[in-house]
Amino acid sequence: MEAYSDPVALITGASRGIGKALAVHLARSGFKVALAARTLEDGEQREHSSTVKASDTSPLPGSLAATAALVEEEGGVAMPIFLDITDRATLGPAVTRVQEKWGRIDVLVNNARYVGPGHMDRFLDTPFELLDEHLEGNVMAPVILARLVLPGMIQRGRGCVITITSRAGIANPPAPAGEGGWGLGYALSKGAVCRLVGIIDVEHRQDGIRAFNLNPGTIRTERMAQDMKAFGFDADAGASPDLIGAAAAWLATSKDADALRGQWVEGQALCDEHGLLP
Known about the structure:
Order of helices and strands: EHEHEHEHEHEHHEH
Number of helices: 8
Radius of gyration: 18 Å
CATH class: Alpha Beta
Largest sheet: 7 strands, parallel
Shape: globular
Distance between the termini: 38 Å
Helix content: 25-40%
CATH superfamily: NAD(P)-binding Rossmann-like Domain
CATH topology: Rossmann fold
């Protein structure tokens, strides 16, 4: 185990989009960053169609190797780790690897979400097993990861858990899935996981744990640009992922964030309020 010198953050879904921005901004704030996702190298192929009606295994831009390179270009330290939020067998080994190498995890950011069919299918067209996949990846994986890292945080008397949430979990879609709205699996799972933060806050605030739901709003990501136009989304209308990276770094490091413990935080508004980006 390396001697501890800097705080450590574990970020899921760190191969692209918001996860990549989270890694860069937390590294800028002095964290060693453990980067967890499925895509280790550029060009890997796996299913990322949002509907049961068609398959799409074309490579998505981004990888853990690319994110690690960005972090290291800025003088940060990164550790890429394979983790699949729909496969519980990968969660424990990922946490153990970070703890064995760096001795601790000070910040957990549950950013990854299920990517695959059922996301943009309507209720009557969505197989029950795909609802199970949404719940496994978007709810149970964050719950399990939080259970794995909290004991160490409590022992040290401090720690931070951030869940990247979505308004889809608390509001009706503006249109049916496929026409600018979203499917039940996404809404159901995001609605469930947003309760994790409140429970952690009520039970472990006195242990020095800070927990936040961070809502990104509409963000321009690689997958939005490649996949979502066909489902009624304007990929160019969103904000930069850097806003959410900066917001998460502020929540993880600022004493002023104590006032927001256990709450739902609008990431873009937080950036504006505190002038976190030029």
